[in-house]
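Appendix C reproduces, verbatim, an entry submitted by the partner laboratory led by Prof. M.T., so that reviewers can inspect both the input and the predicted structure.
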Amino acid sequence: MWFGALGALGARTYICVMPPPGSDEVLAAKFADLLPHLDERQRRLLLGAEARSLGRGGITRVAAAAGVSLPTVTRGVAEVKAGAAVSGRVRKPGGGRKPLTETDPGLSAALEALVDPVTRGDPMSPLRWTAKSTRQLADALTAGGHPVSHVRVGELLHSLGYSLQSNAKAVEGKQHPDRDAQFAHINSAASRYLKTGDPVISVDAKKKELIGETPGYKNNGRDWQPHGQPIRVGVHDFPDPTMPKAVPYGIYDLSANTGWVTVGSDGDTAAFAVATLRRWWAQVGQLAYPNAKRLLISADAGGSNGYRVRLWKTELAQFATDTNLSITVSHYPPGTSKWNRIEHRLFSAITSNWRGRPLTSHQVVVDLIGATTTRTGLTVRSEADTNSYPKGIKISGAQMAAIAPQLKTNKFHGEWNYTVTPGTATAKPATAK
């Protein structure tokens, strides 16, 4: 505080007089600096300690300086006198607003009845046929006499063990009784081949992909782009009649952990599948396995390499003759294509590598596939195949009879497991044009 007085010569002299340490101004400044950083309990203890140190009238002075009520300071003094124990709690157990599950005991049951109406509520509940968002659930509960916010509904759902989940593809449907036995057969054959150093490959066709640059097609997944600047593609995925789809057919070498993908632009036919095998063997297989006399192929039960496809077998017969290889084929049982090794060792890595990138041309597809790698050492080679492989080629009974000497079926499910040996195939293969 500053006080002025007249000196001997009439000049005004100013004297600074600091307030005493316990003055109300000092207390107010101290509380203004400290109280915003303390929780409710710590504020009470500080105010109570200050009031005790001031003695008589301390409660009134502290309450005025801190801007709080007298009962608050009084409680603080009592807690200090009682020797408040160090605790992480701000309030005593049971303090604060009671949970909704206590004030409204029927809330949890009503919520579960809405979330799962078939087993816990009304099977004819209108919400059974709508998206059960937290806001819709909150509105339905409020209308039913349980006022609650959508935020609290979300918290209750988590406490009841619910979470947002998508459908899980786990039900495989009706299975063949020898499903597991066929898996064991394939595993046993692969182990024997790998032990002797013979090639074991898994083959399959990947999903056909739409190709086009203008306006472009969405490719699922996300990729790093400048904020707010996504790659813009067409709203509709209508195929461009002037741009054929990309048809990737892949080969995965189990021993070498390498992949080969031929990207075609025509039909996914058995002729195209075997043509991919020829490319792989000529450029990779015979170099990696120069002494190999046999080859094991695991394939799906359907598609271009299905066990019922005659063209697949006639093309394999010609391939076996041309390469002097004894080719054993083991098909996975129907409905178990996802167990094929190529699906989760090669195709999944390709999908991850090109996520979020529009496939603007066949060469882009080839480049993206060829750049696919994994931390486990997977490498992939890819080539484009612009040849034509017509659909609807019929293989006659006479052609099948001509290659019959080359086909040797296994005693266990010969339709799934068979060997194609080298020979002179009289059936003319459906070569590419």
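The chain has three domains: 2-82, 106-159, 179-222+230-420. Additional entries are available on request from the coordinating office.
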